[in-house]
């Protein structure tokens, strides 16, 4: 199987290179980048010396279609919506890490992304690539809308409770904390070391584009319309996302009861690890891995459940999940090439 | 005016030294520490060379009472409850930075601190030292219960809305993010660099001792009983606390309307700065200062208001606020010795 | 006395604002910036809310000359060389924080800065603003070339040994470690959080423009020509510079002997603090202050002395030293407005 | 092949678990720890959930000898010297990550480690496990003295120049910069987040125990007696070591010439990567991998060469190198189980 990476020069791109370099069934055929074509990837990322020393190539549809079977789009939103259809027509499998095909309702895309949406047909065709909940659909997909980093953490944390009918949706609040790599390698004052280090800041309060993605998936699972509050914060670290989720319980449950139900729910999910009552995960405990760790507290004083969900945003929140989706599409074990133990400390 | 600092060898202690060294009306007479008496403070904290080179002294009640007018207690909880009464009897003014005199209900202290409480009489006598709300009581106090770091940020953020009747209390959720200095200089795995750096973790979910302190003060202002959720998180930074506060609005208000009401509310408060609509404070923007900065978003989709409140936990959350209380007690301008511009970047 | 700051929107600029806002004898009259004129400084730096809310103004020579007595140039190299002469002619005192007037030899400027130099006459007129060594010249200066951050740390560390004739110059090696703020607020991949955090990198090895500045001053003090090795490193922190200096001893001396000579040497220098034998300063111990702390080890195995010198690069390495120079020019105590205790932790 | 890890509860221990869990030819049979026996490793390190959930066992010589073929000692210095001989007698292969068997001269151990040394016979038997220079000896070893973290970086940087006769030894200076994980998981003020973060400090100047280890190996390769200066610094990061090496050239060579010689020298070394002239490695570019990256500058002004050498201290500086040694002993490819791409960003 020959793979190409469009946007190979970004953080998600080089992480795809890392995983594919160690994957037993796939070979990296092309690294593609509009802005840095002609350069060797190791000159942009010296850590790849001896690992992958390919030259970045330009976006040539015909050549890409000829040389590759499978494409990863590690690009900003607004880019893949015009490229993906051309490759689908030529029979390639497309895994899009951007937000372009995630929202089924094009008006919501326009509202939250402030850009024109992809064509409706492709939006319908795209499968939301959250394997723990859409495994069967993913297996038959040609176009994967790989979930956003925050939605991955938030949904893996709350969806079991939603599906099992434990919580009231109108009470749902998600407080997100993310490392800086989520914003990519592009330079801006917001990612300047001196402005981020020894600092916490909230951003895009009430208007973050991951809000409708979370809502849409909860609605898809529950059948009910909901509005949530999602507040993202920037944390002085490179990798990692934590979502702290607050939800009112429909009926009182102890922490132990909720933990037990979550453990059963995720029993056959390789990458979801549920902590025992009294233990909550920290982001570093999944650093460098595809795991999502979940901790739970039920507070009888307020009859709310608090769920802590952590991932490595570049892996389970982007490139690792993309590989997981690829594995499912091609019928391989979902953990193939992804059995990386977290790097600790 | 001659001041002594009990627990001068901790982070709050040295920060008191920094402020008092530059205060025009007060002189540091004694640095007191049980565990490090006999050592020079500059050997424990070389940054104090040439600034303050006093030798730490033991806890000798009579001598302290003779040499000082005013005592700061920068000690862990459980310590000042037995010391303060002895000094009050000798006429000294006591400002306690620990939690010992904050909760009026001794049973709540026992429950949340897991320790025996102070005597009821002193609990009643103690004035809660949040100057923006209890200025008049503070002016006449002999014993100040200096607020906790999280409660300071949380209460300055939410109390205006409480007092103006804007929000439903039962919906109140406070998501706290703190730097590591809040845990003090004592060594533990939880403050080991390698365990904190590049990491976020939640802790004491549902059982943090600052919860009843926040609830008690909201109840005191509003007259209503409430239970809140408060979830503290440890952030890989040294200083700074952010509280992200979620509360349901009683009736719809725009962000601009809430901002305007907050600006009016804090008009005469020197250290509370309210941001314009669309702008939210980051912790670094108050670093090294006694300011509390507040940003507000009203979300019409959920009819909730989100309030971002930030302080430097060692200053407005501890030593700076203690100085502010001292200024009020002695009739000086509340900002005396505290007009420090935040250190940025 | 009315001061203007050209380049007020950079990190050195805002730090000048912080110091001047608390200075008893000087008033900030104008904040000047070509690129951000028309904006309010508090919109660029919210931490300055209520502290300094001036609007940035354009570079209008006549107006500036009319309204101010004293100008600070907090600009990149290559800018002040054309501006300073115009203001000198109009009688203003100029303190230049850039490298434009530091090197007496214009050819060296051209070689190391890769830019055309300032006019020879102004290079000769400029006084190198290292108060611990050029105090008398500074008192009579109209144009100060404020030292670079690395040279300040390196020279305060090595010059006593040079002046007292303790070391062989040809053996001199300076290994520099700097926080990221030294590179300013401009965005670049080199200051992107994810590229700096959890990382150390060397840069400009053998070609850093501070090399000839260090050499020139050692030569000025010693009368001998020398070439040194200076290797700068970028450290994942915002503020602070450490220079680790290696020099061969002319004749054997114990650590205690060298420490004693340094202590005597700096006895009357307010901002130089020499540590006892066996104790070496860390950068955080001068954070937020104008101190330079120095530690010394003499190694009899190699007959070399190692000198550790630390400063806050934005203060003693830039804006604080500029204020110190201003104080000397106007006959005030050199520490006026600069008696800030380091912020620790 | 069945392996045991003594000291499995430390940072080097868990990193050995990570590597061995993915090694095709070795199985972890026992995790051994005196202080934490009886606990499950996943309770000490939750990131190991589902990866390795063994219970830590006590040090029982007979049982260990019965169940394992190979032992890793990830213990502080002073511990393995009494354990290793007992296991060697029972025929086990021992790889010691501590300093106990590195110095051939027991007096030097006593002087620099301030402890009694191992028995002379074992010191002679031990093979210094730096595979790039002692590969043949390692292949036949029963006892490996795995190099220290600083010596690994320093020696891989300077030994080619030593072996090729390019430099004068008496001029050798090594300025080391290390992340905090090198000090292990034990708690101390020196590894407290608030004391390390936003800080650089030098330590053990002139007395660090890695000094004689570096000297001994250079002497072994060159046949000459030397004394060096080695100055370690603590950097606010978790992983990574950089050594900046300064050495006088015997005869002038350009940067390109030295780079070319190094490239040839390391041509067949899998884990040593030499950068092109003008490019120098940063520690993050080897983070999470077993690589050592080397950059070189020759400065004609001073006739010195500067060599930048970086490793991940926990991997190439400890556990990864131990695995590499194990691979050589058992005749496997040296990179077996170690082909980890650096984690970037």
TrEMBL record, chains A, B, C, D:
Subcellular location: Cytoplasm
Residue span, Semialdehyde dehydrogenase NAD-binding domain: 2-141
Single GO MF annotation: N-acetyl-gamma-glutamyl-phosphate reductase activity
Active site: 149
Presence of keyword Phosphoprotein: no
E.C. designation(s): 1.2.1.38
Catalytic activity: N-acetyl-L-glutamate 5-semialdehyde + phosphate + NADP(+) = N-acetyl-L-glutamyl 5-phosphate + NADPH + H(+)
Gene3D superfamilies to which the protein is assigned, alphabetical: Dihydrodipicolinate Reductase, domain 2 (3.30.360.10), NAD(P)-binding Rossmann-like Domain (3.40.50.720)
Chief subcellular location: cytoplasm
Protein family membership: Belongs to the NAGSA dehydrogenase family. Type 1 subfamily.
Protein name listed in UniProt: N-acetyl-gamma-glutamyl-phosphate reductase
Species this chain originates from: Scopulibacillus daqui
């Amino acid at each position: 199987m020959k793979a190409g990476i469009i946007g190979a020069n970004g953080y998600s791109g080089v992480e795809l290179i890392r995983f594919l370099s160690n994957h037993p069934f796939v070979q990296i055929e092309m690294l593609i980048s509009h802005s840095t074509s002609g350069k060797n990837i190791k000159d942009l990322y010296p850590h790849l010396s001896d690992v992958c020393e390919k030259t970045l190539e330009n976006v040539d549809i015909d050549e890409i279609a000829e040389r590759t079977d499978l494409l990863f789009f590690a690009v900003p939103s607004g880019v893949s919506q015009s490229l993906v259809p051309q490759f689908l027509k030529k029979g390639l499998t497309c895994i899009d890490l951007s937000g372009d095909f995630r929202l089924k309702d094009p008006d919501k895309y326009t509202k939250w992304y402030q850009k024109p949406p992809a064509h409706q047909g492709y939006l319908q065709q795209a499968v939301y690539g959250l394997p723990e909940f859409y495994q069967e659909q993913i297996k038959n997909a040609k176009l994967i809308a790989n979930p956003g980093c925050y939605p991955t953490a938030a949904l893996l944390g709350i969806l079991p409770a939603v599906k099992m009918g434990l919580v009231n949706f109108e009470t749902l609040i998600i407080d997100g904390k993310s490392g800086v790599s989520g914003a990519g390698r592009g330079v801006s004052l917001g990612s300047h070391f001196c402005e981020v280090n020894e600092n916490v800041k909230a951003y895009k309060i009430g208007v973050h584009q991951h809000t409708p993605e979370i809502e849409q998936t909860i609605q898809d699972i529950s059948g009910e319309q909901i509005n949530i509050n999602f507040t993202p914060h920037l944390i002085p670290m490179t990798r990692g996302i934590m979502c702290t989720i607050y939800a009112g319980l429909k009926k009182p449950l102890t922490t132990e009861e909720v933990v037990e139900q979550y453990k059963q729910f995720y029993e056959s999910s390789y990458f979801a690890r549920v902590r025992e009552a009294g233990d909550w995960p920290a982001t570093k405990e999944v650093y460098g891995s595809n795991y999502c760790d979940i901790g739970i507290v039920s507070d009888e004083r307020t009859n709310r459940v608090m769920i802590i969900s952590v991932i490595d945003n570049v892996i389970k929140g982007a490139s690792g999940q993309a590989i997981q989706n690829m594995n499912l599409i091609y019928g391989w074990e979902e953990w193939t090439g992804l059995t990386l133990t977290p790097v600790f400390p």
